[in-house]
Amino acid sequence: MNATIVIYGSSTGTCEAIAEKIASKLGCEAVNVQDLTADIVSNNQNLILGTSTWGAGELQDDWYDGLKTLQGADLNGKTIAIFGCGDCQSYGDTFVGGMGELYNGIKASGARFIGSVETDGYTYDDSEAVIDGKFIGLPLDDINEDDKTDARIEAWVAAITPDL
Domain residues of the chain, as ranges? Predict the structure, then answer.
C-alpha cells in the first residue's frame, strides 16, 4: 500500500471515531483537517477524506479551510476515497451531502476517486453525494443505523484496499 492518510473533520466526535476505525484497519494515521497542510497532502499518495454533514447538506465547518488546502495542492494522480456521516431520518433530504461537497470541490483535480457505494440498503430521500446512481463514498448514519456501521466500514475498507 502506498502512503495513505485519513483526514477528517468532526464537530461532535462521531466522524473522528469513524476515521480512527478506518485508519486502524488500513494501518495508517488519522489527522484532523484542522491540522492539514500542503506537506501532508504531498507526502501521501492516498487520501481518505471524512466529513460529517450539517444544516442543509453542508460540510463540517473545518473542512472549508481544508478544501482550500486540497484545491491548492497537486492532486493529479493521487487516489481519493470519501466517507461521510449523516442523519438519514432528520436530514433525509440532504443525507451525507458533505461528501458531495468534498467531491465537487476537488473532482476536477486529476485525482482518481475510489470507494463508491451502492444506494441499496440506505434509507434517505435525496443526497448530493449520489453520483451516477451510487454514493461517491461510504455513507454512515451512526445515529439511526449504528448497528450497521462496523459492517459497512469493514466491507468498504476491504473494497478500497486493493486500489491503495
Answer: 4-163
